[in-house]
Specification:
Blueprint: H1 10-20, E1 24-25, E2 27-32, E3 38-43, E4 46-51, E5 54-58, H2 70-78, E6 80-85, H3 91-96, E7 115-116, E8 125-126, E9 131-143, E10 146-158, E11 178-179, E12 186-187
Length: 199
């Protein structure tokens, strides 16, 4: 089967790529609007792309052809966001925050989640998340109707018990979920295996 991407409408391109390039990590992102209201939304077009400086990138789509999602609007205004990693106990609440709400209505208002101030940002973080990355916007690239936001990570919050004193991960303690095929499929990371690299 061969798919000529230039001949497919954007929705079909999305379905094809989002179903095949898997598993993808999920960035559950908090931002704040001009009134200080918290926005929370998940994005699976996301990953870490470097460590010097430490950078992450994600691609928030538009609400429609003209209107950026609240996450992108808020980052453009404040230059700040927090990326949370999601484990299975948080999966349903993460999905709940993907609902389309009117601008200014917080996705967190109806969920049993706790937010606390970040160390270096005005944007709060979600306490229940196993990992939270405090980020500032470095660059936003617009390619066609795609928007790629690159952020520099300034502070990492990790749940107690994830790392030893030398910052080596305890694999059994950290089991984030990943995004699979579009529209509603996810994967667990409870079945992991190790393949040592050659010297």
């Amino acid at each position: 089967m061969i798919y000529e991407m230039d001949q497919l409408p954007p929705t079909k391109r999305y379905n094809l790529l989002a179903s095949l390039v898997t598993p993808r990590p999920i960035a559950w992102i908090t931002t704040i609007d001009e009134e200080g209201r918290i926005n929370a939304a998940p994005f699976s077009f996301f990953n870490v792309f470097g460590s010097n400086p430490p950078i992450v990138a994600f691609a928030p789509g538009n609400k429609d052809r003209e209107t950026p999602k609240d996450t992108a609007r808020n980052i453009r205004r404040t230059g700040e966001f927090v990326v949370h990693m999601v484990d299975e106990p948080l999966a349903q609440m993460m999905v709940d925050t993907s609902a389309s709400l009117p601008h200014g209505e917080s996705e967190l208002d109806k969920l049993p989640l706790t937010t606390v101030p970040s160390e270096n940002l005005s944007v709060p973080r979600i306490v229940e998340a196993p990992v939270a990355l405090e980020c500032s916007e470095h660059t936003t690239l617009e390619i066609g109707s795609n928007r790629l936001i690159i952020g520099v990570v300034h502070v990492v919050h990790a749940r107690d018990g994830l790392f030893d004193d030398d910052i080596h991960l305890y694999h059994g303690a950290y089991q984030p979920i990943g995004r699979m095929s579009s529209p509603d499929w996810y994967t667990r990371t409870t079945d992991q295996f190790e393949i040592p690299r050659p010297d």
